[in-house]
Amino acid sequence: MRYKIKGSLILGIILLVSSCQNKEPETELKSEFGKSIYYDAFLWKQGRNDTLTKSFVYDFNQWATETDSYVQLSLSDHTSEPISSSNKTYHFLVNDKPVVNGLFSIESSKKSLDTIRLQIVFKEKINSEFYGFISIKEHNIDRVNDIDQLNSANIYKWSASQQVKMNPLQFRLICIAGVLLTLLLIYLLVLRPIMFKRFGRGVVTIQSPFYKNTPVKNRIKIVYTNKKEKQGFLNKVFKGKIVYVVHDYFNAPLILTPGIKGRIRVKTNGAYSIEPFTSNMEKGKTFKITNTSTNEEITLTYL
Hints:
Elements: E1 29-39, E2 48-49, E3 52-57, H1 62-66, E4 70-77, E5 90-94, E6 97-98, E7 103-107, E8 115-122, E9 129-139, E10 154-164, H2 168-195, E11 203-208, E12 212-215, E13 219-225, H3 233-238, E14 241-246, E15 254-258, E16 264-267, E17 272-275, E18 280-281, E19 286-291, E20 297-302
Parallel strand pairs: 1-10, 13-14
Antiparallel strand pairs: 1-2, 3-8, 4-7, 4-9, 5-6, 5-8, 9-10, 11-12, 11-20, 13-15, 15-16, 16-18, 17-19, 19-20
Keywords: Membrane, Signal, Transmembrane, Transmembrane helix
């Protein structure tokens, strides 16, 4: 009578991933490899594609060790098709070596190797769940674990999954960009109109000695000057539009800004006098502005 040989495997549980299909009660043990995380490289942040690892500890009894016993195991998917590195989007490694035709052996003569390191390598991003079986293909022993009928017996059901994610750097940059965009919109739509008051509908007209119509709607400032100036793009975005009116009459800037109750606030810097005297021009009235250095006059109306 032959002695019974029992192989034992110790597994660490990481995460349960099982099939959603209805199946009959299963007698094989479950080996859960867990979840592999995948994301593409982005800028200086390298990509990631986890290799999942499980260690199986086995032990032959004395009789099996003395008779050089072995067990050949088969790795298959959920359809019982052997998993080969040549025709799968994922494959297995046993002790860092590719599994050929889905088969690998445990031999009692290699007692020093009493641990099998089994790894699942995903060749590409799949974003799915997988399961299959570890079964006995060939053997010259009587028993593995508590299984007597060893021919093609499934001793483990393995499961694993891959989750495709966004690169963390890309995700952070998108979040930062979203926050900045939100703050920018709040500033442009709420804070900017409060900080930089704009003109309502209206036109400032110079009637003599030259004629010039200047629409003021949605402008924050009208500058009359003899120097050609251009407002910067960022200044226009974050403050509002400024209109520059260039003419030789204005040897010093004459600045108009929105005032209270639809009026225009005038800033002369002492270079001009206004009749009738005011610092806030009312809509519909005509004013005479005199250049104090040249005594030249212009007529200005806010309509």
